[in-house]
Design brief:
Elements: H1 9-22, H2 30-49, H3 57-67
Helix pairs in contact: 1-2
Length: about 70
């Protein structure tokens, strides 16, 4: 299936399913080229529909310190 863009949730889900099917494709094959195209259009769709906001730097530092078991001393 050759998708040039993703416009609906159904097309998005189809593209994800196809990516899973093509994931082990040999390089320089039509399947690998289709996989590359699918990854590109899925990425574009996700960036448009599921944007990830940049975290607040201070909150990020606090979370990372907690993950590492570090504490802030006064």
């Amino acid at each position: 299936m050759n998708l040039n863009s993703i416009n609906t949730e159904a097309e998005y889900q189809t593209a994800l399913r196809l990516i899973r099917e093509l994931w082990e494709a040999e390089q320089a094959t039509p399947e690998a080229l289709e996989l590359e195209n699918l990854v590109k259009i899925v990425t574009e769709y996700e960036e448009a529909h599921f944007p990830i906001e940049e975290p607040d730097p201070i909150e990020y530092a606090k979370i990372r310190m907690e993950e590492l078991g570090l504490q802030h001393y006064k």
